[in-house]
Amino acid sequence: MTAQTIVQMQTVRHIKTDKVAELATATWSNCLVIGKEISMSGMTAHPASRNSVLSTYEQTLVVLGKVRDLVEAAGGTLGSIYKLVIYVKDIADKDEVGRARRDFFTAPQPCPYPCSTLVEVSGLVFPELTVEIDAFARLDIDLQQAVS
User: Fold this and answer.
1) Which of 70, 90, 75 lies closest to 135 in space, CA to CA?
2) Does the pLDDT at position 1 exceed 60?
3) Is 45 exposed, middle or buried (0-12, 13-18, 19+ CB in 10 A)?
4) pLDDT for 71-108, tens place per residue?
5) Distance from C-alpha of 136 to C-alpha of 143, rounded to nearest angstrom
6) Which of 7, 55, 108, 127 is deepest in the core (most CB within 10 A)?
7) Can you tell me the distance from the alpha carbon of 73 to that of 95, in angstroms, rounded to the nearest whole number?
């Protein structure tokens, strides 16, 4: 008799929302939910960045808004976001990114910010972009309920 390994396949949901455009011609998905894990593609301020000149602070707020919208469309909350990887074209913009994070991640009570990595890169997909963010979230956590 041989032992069989039974693999339970996770349900995968493709999350879409009118608040974050996903072109029909795109060769990627903006957001997938695999089990309780929310996986997102890197988000930028495009197309808002094409319509007007946005500072890194403003771009960061636009991107974090997109991340929030996708997490909420998946059934999570702002507290579901536990990690951010932030790519900037100029590391000197770190203070603007930090200010945007402080302004965005507010809560009625003190709670931990998501974990974060900040990396300088030589370029992003469009020349006017100064920041791109990878976000990681889970449906079964809420940082607003975290214990110190």
Assistant:
1) 70
2) no
3) buried
4) 999 999 999 999 999 999 999 999 999 999 999 987 55
5) 13
6) 55
7) 30
Question: How many contiguous H segments (helices) and E segments (strands) does the chain have?
Answer: 3, 6
Higher pLDDT, 109 or 16: 16
Mean pLDDT (the chain, rounded)? 91
Supply the pTM of this predicted model.
0.89
Residue 89 in contact with residue 124, Cβ under 8 Å? yes
- CA-nearest of 10, 71, 21 to 48 is 21
Task: Give residue 3's pLDDT band: very low, low, confident or very high (50, 70, 90).
Answer: low
Burial annotation 53-91 (CB, 10 A radius, 16+ → b, else e)? ebebbbbbbbbbbbbbbbbebbebebbbbbebebbbbee
3-class secondary-structure state, position 38: strand
Asked if pLDDT for residue 110 goes beyond 80, the answer is: no
**Quick one: which of 92, 89, 95, 97 has its CA closest to 114?**
97
